[in-house]
Automatic annotation (TrEMBL):
Residue positions binding 5-amino-6-(D-ribitylamino)uracil: W31, S65, F66, E67, N90, V91, I92, F123
InterPro entries noted in UniProt: LS, LS/RS, LS/RS_sf
UniProt-recorded Gene Ontology molecular function terms: 6,7-dimethyl-8-ribityllumazine synthase activity
Task performed by this protein: Catalyzes the formation of 6,7-dimethyl-8-ribityllumazine by condensation of 5-amino-6-(D-ribitylamino)uracil with 3,4-dihydroxy-2-butanone 4-phosphate. This is the penultimate step in the biosynthesis of riboflavin.
Protein's name in the database: 6,7-dimethyl-8-ribityllumazine synthase
Substrates-to-products reaction catalysed: (2S)-2-hydroxy-3-oxobutyl phosphate + 5-amino-6-(D-ribitylamino)uracil = 6,7-dimethyl-8-(1-D-ribityl)lumazine + phosphate + 2 H2O + H(+)
Keywords, alphabetical: Riboflavin biosynthesis, Transferase
Organism placement in taxonomy: Bacteria, Pseudomonadati, Bacteroidota, Flavobacteriia, Flavobacteriales
UniProt-annotated binding residues for (2S)-2-hydroxy-3-oxobutyl phosphate: E95, T96, R137
Enzyme Commission number, as recorded: 2.5.1.78
Protein's GO biological process: riboflavin biosynthetic process
Amino acid sequence: MATSQKNLSVYDKENLPEAKDMKIGFVVSEWNPDITENLFQGGFDALMDVGVFKENIVRWNVPGSFELPYACKKMQESFEMLDAIVAVGNVIQGETKHFDFVCQGLTQGIMELNLKGDIPVIFCVLTDNTKAQSEARSGGIHGNKGTEAAIAAIKMAQLRKDAKFYKAN
């Protein structure tokens, strides 16, 4: 697996864009809450570590991962001042094809939001074969995907800001 050679929680704070005034949204799935709460906490802690103000972080909850694209779209529409949104979820392979349909639908939905919307949406959804794999990537042996997603949000927010600057000049 790709994450077996990487710690998802490691980032170089010194080489990140200034994030103090950034506004970041989280949409968090309530399904598998032990995993999604760890992912959210990893992201939240990373944002605090790089100086984002607590009041600049917005969080919404949704019932499951399939609902993430809709809620992220509504967050884009409701909070135009947000710099980035992180979609947090967890889908674990079961005995049916449900896993495939949920993963495909939510992945496509997040991608479409990124292509059509102006606020970047970061994919922080673990799609693992087992709960142990999800635990390893939500604060366990492989670090925390939530941390990685928060850092990606900062970088994409800066890219968005830079793109607007170049378009204006």
